[in-house]
């Protein structure tokens, strides 16, 4: 079941955030995520967050305006449709979505492309100095892969 984030979810969400960042971004020094944990814990509750709750939080998506600030699923629940469900929830509440994804995180790039996101710009992340894509998706109609009406 997808529901809105509640304050009681914070510890579970933070555990998922840290664990999945470390696993998905092995090309980034782990201390980067560990040093940012307190900052994320502070700002996370002010974002619009939806959690996938199946007898506890198994994943979540965070939205800040038109931006997907994070999509994370516990390892043992990945590839079961939870990420797709959370992405669809975000599409229900927004007509346009943007996100940044590291180019080295090929699984995430493919996931977002499968869900209609297109690459808009190549960038270098200012904090980690790793290459990333700005991706976007206009929700109110189907876009051909490789095209974007943004």
Automatic annotation (TrEMBL):
Keywords: Acyltransferase, Ribonucleoprotein, Ribosomal protein, Transferase. The keyword Cytoplasm does not apply. GO terms for cellular component: ribosome. InterPro entries: Acyl_CoA_acyltransferase (IPR016181), GNAT_dom (IPR000182). Residues 1-140 form the N-acetyltransferase domain. GO terms for molecular function: acyltransferase activity, transferring groups other than amino-acyl groups. This is Ribosomal protein S18 acetylase RimI and related acetyltransferases (RimI). It comes from Commensalibacter communis.
């Amino acid at each position: 079941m997808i529901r809105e984030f509640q304050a009681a979810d914070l510890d579970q969400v933070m555990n998922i955030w840290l664990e999945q960042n470390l696993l998905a971004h092995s090309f980034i020094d782990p201390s980067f995520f560990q040093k940012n944990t307190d900052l994320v814990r502070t700002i996370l509750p002010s974002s619009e967050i939806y959690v996938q709750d199946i007898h506890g939080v198994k994943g979540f998506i965070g939205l800040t305006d038109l931006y997907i600030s994070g999509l994370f699923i516990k390892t043992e629940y990945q590839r079961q449709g939870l990420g797709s469900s959370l992405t669809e929830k975000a599409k229900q509440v927004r007509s346009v979505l943007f996100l940044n994804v590291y180019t080295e995180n090929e699984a995430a790039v493919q996931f977002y492309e499968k869900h209609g996101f297109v690459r808009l710009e190549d960038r270098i992340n200012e904090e980690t100095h790793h290459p990333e894509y700005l991706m976007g998706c206009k929700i109110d109609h189907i876009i051909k892969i490789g095209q974007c009406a943004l």
